[in-house]
Amino acid sequence: SSGINAEYGGNHSAHSISSNQRQIALISELIHVASLVHDDVLDSAYTRRSLVTVNALYNERVAILAGDFIIARATSKLSQLGCPETITILSSVIRDLIKGEILQLHSSSPSSPADMFGVYLEKTYLKTASLISHSCQAVALNSSRPNLQKSASSYGKNLGIAFQLVDDMLDFVASSADMGKAASGSDLKLGLATAPVLYAAREFPQLNDMILRGFSGEGDAEEAFHLVGRSEGVELTRQLAERYCAGAIRDLEDMPACEERDALSSLCDLVLNRTN
Amino acid sequence: SSGINAEYGVDSPVTFLGIDYLNNEEIFYLLENIQKLIGTKHPIVEFGANTLLGSTGTFRVHGLIALLASQIVNLCNTSNKEMVYNRDKTGILPKQRRLVEVCEMISTAFFLHDSIVSTDGSDERGNLQKGNKLSLLFGDYFLATACSQLASFEHPKVVDSISKAIASNVEGRFWLDTIDPTSPPSLPDITRYATLRHGTLLSSCCLSSGLLSGAHPDHITALESFGSNVGLAIQLKREVFAVHSGRAEVTSYPYIAAVENLNRMGREVKLGASPDQVINLGGGIERTIESCEQHCNRALDALNVFQSVDDVFVASLGGIVRDIKSAKPIVSV
Questions:
Q1: Dihedral of the CA atoms A47, A51, A57, A60 (nearest 10)?
Q2: Is the dihedral of CA B198, B200, B203, B209 positive or negative?
């Protein structure tokens, strides 16, 4: 998906996608897949998108090797573009992804409720938005209009954060398309405090202690889920996502009007309104 | 020994464990979590205690070798005025030193990713699993830092070479992991796996050093061959030491060599025989020492390309290779 973004981004800088831009899209997908393979080991996840994970199909060692291999191949392809600046832009994504994971590990013991939202947004940027933002920037750099790098990067960042906010929101919302399918609340079970819960804690301060102990107490996850449902948490999260999308659309205004720009704009709607 | 003298020649202890890479939040958070596992048997605890306070020895002698090779290739390349200008007082470019640090980081990442232990059965408090996760994260951190550092060299061919070495290393580890003791690989195959796992990173490091120096293609080829042969030779000698200290493994060269010898003599490997027994019966140690000598000689041949250089540096590097060839350990394993 970040690959598609990058391709569209490239497209409207020049109305045809250069081979470098295609490679950038491919490389960013490879980096994304590598991070997912390792994330599944970290989360001990047995399924992803209804498919068996690498660590479940084989074992953890194989999954770790696979992730390493994919990153190596991605970096090798990156070097073959022969552009030092592009290499720097995309390799900073690899660094950001791991920083995000470590921040997530550490944020199970944050210092204060006030810090928590800031840490959450930083973690969201590092784990999700950085890849999209830097891919868009790289693609703009490799276009006929490299001066659009800043707008492209900002678009990617805003879209990425909006995407993750909606993702975090959907974890608390039953999908109306799948009749009778309950919301999973899986983030709570993993001990993660995302935007809906952080917002809900302002209305129900008892959530703060649960957040600080990573919902590890008996019945914590269930009670937190219930409290989020009673709060404005989900709606406030949605509003925040809308603000980021509005930012993304403003970034698009710097780009020439064309079909591809419209496509990127409707991507924002898609992100906001998806149900799964 | 020539090893210690050579360290003085390159002016600094060969380790990336300088303050820059350790003085940041990420390492701090990771160490905090490792502390919680003290008392468990996970390898990452030993890593945290020993490695960060001193050198692991995972790439220590390799790093020294790469730095010496950098000195030598720079000396052969004095027509490159810009390179000459940028060398430090030991004749090494700052980028070449950073390259060696990057390779040590990558080697450490591999060590950490190999420190994953099986959690079947006895892991009631989930400590082993936590240790595994830390090993993965810590290893990823070093790999990611290495990638950013590589990018800062602004030399795409260096990035390509090191990336390919990482991929080769993974391939080597995969093959070694999936060896079936009841149907062991052939000697050429185990040599290939061992080269992938232990030769490609040093080879790429030496080659890339040459690239950073702007060296002649013949010198770069020589560096590639030198690094690959030395890396493998070091591993073969380590495997000999491992047998001597009672740590023989079925995935090692001595074992496979012994099996092949026994098969050639028409003797079968007895079911239930320990790796030590098989290796002793089949003359595995002798064959490994022979192979180590061969690869050291190939490395020394590659060094001949640099004959025009001041004897001191080539002698240092040649001395280290001869130390590897003879039975003397260079660093305690």
A1: -40
A2: negative
Residues on chain B touching A110 (C-beta within 8 angstroms): none
A-B Cβ pairs (cutoff 8 Å, strict): 111
Say what the pTM is: 0.86
Three-state SS annotation for chain A: CHHHHHHHHHHHHHCCCCHHHHHHHHHHHHHHHHHHHHHHHHCCCCEECCEECHHHHCCHHHHHHHHHHHHHHHHHHHHHCCCHHHHHHHHHHHHHHHHHHHHHHHCCCCCCHHHHHHHHHHHHHHHHHHHHHHHHHHHHHCCCCHHHHHHHHHHHHHHHHHHHHHHHHHCCCCCCCCCCCCCCCHHHHCCCCCHHHHHHHHHCCHHHHHHHCCCCCCCHHHHHHHHHHHCCHHHHHHHHHHHHHHHHHHHHCCCCCCHHHHHHHHHHHHHHHCCC
Q: What is the pLDDT of residues B35-90, one digit of tens each?
A: 777 777 788 877 765 555 444 445 567 888 888 899 889 988 888 888 888 888 77
Kindly report, residue by residue over A100-117, the tens digit of the pLDDT.
Answer: 998 887 765 556 666 888
Neighbours of A70 (CB within 10 A): 22
Which tokens in the block code for residue B326? 């003879």
- The first and second tokens of residue B182, run together, are 């009841």
Taking the CA of residue B219 and the nearest CA in chain A, the distance in Å comes to 22
Residue pair A82/B158 in contact (Cβ under 8 Å)? The answer is no
Distance (Å) of CA A44 to CA A39, A63, B113, B178? 8, 11, 16, 22
Mutate to test the interface with B, among A105, A130, A141 (most CBs of B within 10 A): A105
Q: Which of A119-128, B60-69, B128-137, B183-192 shows the lowest mean pLDDT across its residues?
A: B60-69
According to DSSP, residue B285 is labeled: H
Among the partner residues B144, B157, B167, nearest to A72 by beta-carbon distance: B167
**How many CB atoms are closer than 10 A to CB B85?**
7
